[in-house]
Amino acid sequence: MVKAIVIRETGGPEVMSFEEIEVGAPGPGEVRLKHTAIGVNFIDTYYRKGLYPAPGGLPFIPGAEAVGIVEKVGEGVVQFRPGDRVAYAGSVGAYAEARIISAQKLIRVPDDIDGFTVAASLLKGMTVQYLLRQTFKVTRDHTVLFHAGAGGVGQIAGQWLKSLGATSIATVGSEEKAEIARACGYTHVINYRTEDFVARVAEITGGALCDVVYDSVGKDTFPASLDCLKPRGLFASFGNSSGPVAEFSLGILSQKGSLYATRPTLGHYTATRATLDACAEDLFEQIRSEAVTISVGQKFALADAVACHKAMEARETVGSTLLTV
Questions:
Q1: Where is the Enoyl reductase (ER) domain (predicted)?
Q2: From the CB of residue 260, how many other CB atoms can be counted at a distance below 10 Å?
């Protein structure tokens, strides 16, 4: 038996229960993994609340990112062996001391990068990778608006955008977070609590506006984000921290400049072994080169997941958050 966070009904942080569970042995193509560090992401709250349906329904174990040591391998698994250090992102079930997982979802952790760094960055960093290098291929010629620039994803994005030479604009919710965003390399920072971000974007760009807007906030920043885009610009919605974007008529995209809109997910950009490995390796290379450094803002024990979620939803966390096992 091992300990895990179990959710039997959706709702607030208090629905998470710290319980003993049976893990068992891995089946064909599977690995039994002992976690050493678990990444916490805002998407975990979406599953907890029921905004996103949990795979397999209730009850379920939340969390989609972790680093661990392979304990056992199932029949047919040849790429990993007991003792290997591995990680994964995007597979719900991480808030546990150990779990069974498909070997196809695992990434080998490089020897030159520590486990806490990987646990704090894999999901967020691969999200930044597909957003900046695949959803819209950002270059030094582009102007980018990135909402929530001081968050875990935003901090990585700011550094990556700086390395690409792009003009980057971040929005944040406080002066403290503005300082964090500036330190991460954003060219301009807007405090949306004291400034109208649409007006400031127009001012910063001299009316030219942005080539792409990356939005993980959702309800509170839409449709204003569309007003920050130049004609034929791209609106990329990849999260809903303030609530989901309301349904809208496609006609608004033509009215505001023949705009594009997309709702990408990491799973679709890393659906094959080749695309998963390539995405992760691009992130690892950014870390190795020190173009991107990872900030672990806070750590909670696995048993304290309720307090962790409360702090995260109260916007009291900065950078990446880990659960320790």
A1: 11-323
A2: 13
Q: What is the per-residue pLDDT for 10?
A: 97
Residue-wise over 111-120: b if at least 16 C-beta within 10 A, else e? Answer: eebebbbbbb
CA dihedral 186→191→195→198, nearest 10 degrees, is 50
| Complete domains list, the chain, with CATH | 2-121+270-324 (3.90.180.10), 140-263 (3.40.50.720)
CB 222 within 8 A of CB 182: no
With 0-12 CB in 10 A as exposed, 13-18 as middle and 19+ as buried, what is 140? exposed
The CA distance from 108 to 280, in Å, is 10
Enumerate residues 6+ apart whose C-beta is below 8 A from 148. Answer: 154, 170, 171, 172, 216, 217, 241
Model pTM?
Answer: 0.90
Q: Say which DSSP state 136 is in.
A: S
Q: In which residue are the tokens 């174990």 written?
A: 61
Residues contacting residue 165 through CB under 8 Å, at least 6 positions apart: 139, 140
> What are the pLDDT digits (tens) for 103-137?
999 999 999 999 999 999 999 999 999 999 999 99
